[in-house]
Design brief:
Blueprint: E1 2-4, E2 13-16, E3 25-31, E4 34-39, E5 43-48, E6 62-65, E7 71-77, E8 80-85, E9 88-93, E10 99-103, E11 112-118, E12 121-126, E13 131-136, E14 142-147, H1 148-152, E15 164-170, E16 173-178, E17 183-187
Antiparallel strand pairs: 1-2, 3-4, 4-5, 5-6, 7-8, 8-9, 9-10, 11-12, 12-13, 13-14, 15-16, 16-17
Length: about 200
C-alpha cells in the first residue's frame, strides 16, 4: 500500500505499508484511527494511525482472517467496518476489533459484491443473480429481498443474465446499476429507522 500526500503536487510516496503475504489488496477503508485493507486471501490488515496523527504505523499491523475467499468490499458504519468475504459478512468493531460474522446468502459460490447503508439497514448485491437484500445494522437480521429483474423487465427483453453492478443511496432513493446498462431507482422510506422498500 503506497500513501501519497493529497496537498503536495509532487508524486513522492510518503509511506509504504508492506504486505508480508504478498496477497493483492482489493479494497481499502478508513475509520476513526484505523486503515483497513481487504486482501485476496480473505485477510484484513489493520493499521493504526501514528500517535502524531499524520500517518499510519506500519508495525504492528494486526491481521484478521475473515474467511478463505477474497475480501471484495467493505462498508464503514459509525464505529464498525463490514467486510464481505464469500457469502458472509464480518462486522468488525473499531474500538475493540472484535468480530461478528453472519451468512448473507445460502449459496457458497455467491459472494457479496456491493454494500450500501440506508438508515438502520444495509443493502447488499451479489456476484450472481438479480436479487438485492436488506439487513439490519444492529441485529444483522435479513429484513427484505427484492428481485430487480421484475422491476426492469419492461426495459429489456433478455433478463436471463441480469446482474447488479452498483448500489447508491441518494436523495431517498436506492439506485441499482446493472450489467445490462439499466439503472433502477427505488424509493427508500424510513420506517422506524429501517428503510424497507414497498
Amino acid at each position: 500500500i503506497l500513501v501519497y500526500g493529497s496537498m503536495d503536487t509532487s508524486s513522492q510516496c510518503v509511506l509504504d505499508l508492506q504486505n508480508a503475504t504478498g496477497s493483492p489488496v482489493l479494497c481499502l477503508k478508513h475509520v476513526s484511527n484505523f486503515l483497513f485493507a481487504g486482501l485476496h486471501d480473505g485477510t484484513l490488515l489493520i493499521y493504526r494511525r501514528a500517535p502524531e496523527g499524520e500517518l499510519w504505523n506500519p508495525e504492528p499491523c494486526r491481521k484478521v482472517l475473515v474467511g478463505h475467499e477474497p475480501v471484495q468490499t467493505m462498508l464503514a458504519l459509525d464505529d464498525s467496518i463490514w467486510a464481505s468475504c464469500g457469502n458472509s459478512v464480518s462486522v468488525i468493531d473499531v474500538s475493540s476489533l472484535s468480530i461478528q460474522r453472519f451468512e448473507v446468502h445460502q449459496d457458497p459460490v455467491v459472494s457479496v459484491a456491493h454494500m450500501v447503508r440506508a438508515g438502520g439497514g444495509v443493502w447488499m448485491a451479489f456476484s450472481e443473480g438479480s436479487c438485492i437484500r436488506l439487513f439490519h445494522t444492529e441485529t444483522l437480521e435479513h429484513l427484505q429481498e427484492i428481485n430487480i429483474s421484475t422491476r426492469s423487465s419492461f426495459h429489456s427483453s433478455s433478463q436471463k443474465n441480469l446482474r447488479v453492478t452498483s448500489l447508491l443511496i441518494c436523495q431517498g432513493l436506492l439506485w441499482v446499476g446493472t450489467a445490462q446498462g439499466i439503472i433502477i431507482t427505488l424509493p427508500v422510506p424510513k420506517l422506524e429507522g429501517i428503510p424497507k422498500i414497498t
